Amino acid sequence: MTLQEWTITFVKNKDLIKQQLTSVEEKSGVVHTTYKDGKKQEYFMYEKDDDLGKILTALKQTENDPLLSIHVVCYNTTKNLDALLKNWQTFAAYQRLTFYFANPKSLTDTKWIINPWLHARVSDTKNLANGLKSMFSMVEEWKG
Questions:
Q1: What is the DSSP letter of 92?
Q2: Does 143 fall in a domain?
Q3: 20 within a domain of the structure (yes/no)
Q4: Which of 64, 69, 84, 106 would be 140's cystine partner, CB 3.0–4.6 Å?
């Protein structure tokens, strides 16, 4: 299962009860969703370092569009965790940014989710790396 397939399934399942989702489209590796209340979500697949530029560009759009939120979906790997930690201050500046670390093949949990903006406000920075590593360990590391 690819990250795009996992994301589309996840988004649809997340909406099963509320049934507010009006469309799900995949364009150029980004899953775009819209909802009845006008909210829009863009799910970016983070699979290589080049993807970071597209994500940062999209994040700037959230400053002018209060209905837009950005979601980053990546495999649960040490490399991706390190990228989150390295760019933490940048990511923590955006309120409507969420990360999903996934392993569709995991026998334990298949994902862990974090909103850096919110997490930065409720946790102390001294224990950030240990806290994220703890969440990381709840899902088996993706081996491909």
A1: T
A2: no
A3: yes
A4: 106
CB 98 within 8 A of CB 72: yes
**144 residues of the chain, pLDDT tens digit each:** 899 999 999 999 999 999 999 999 999 889 999 999 999 999 999 988 788 899 999 999 999 999 999 999 999 999 999 999 999 999 999 999 999 999 999 999 999 999 999 999 998 889 999 999 999 999 999 998
For the whole prediction, is pTM greater than 0.85?
Answer: yes
Helices and strands of the chain, counted as H and E runs: 6, 6
Q: Is residue 47 part of a domain?
A: yes
At 125, list the tokens: 């920075």
CA geometry: angle at 22 spanning 19 and 23, to 5°? 125
Domain count, the chain: 1
The answer to whether residue 65 sits within a structural domain is: yes
Exposed / middle / buried, residue 124 (Cβ in 10 Å: 0-12, 13-18, 19+): exposed
Instruction: Identify the burial level of 44 via C-beta atoms within 10 angstroms of its C-beta, where 0-12 means exposed, 13-18 middle and 19 or more buried.
Output: buried
Task: Calculate the dihedral angle through the C-alpha atoms of 24, 26, 27, 29, rounding to the nearest 10 degrees.
Answer: 140
Q: Which position has the token pair 């795009």?
A: 4
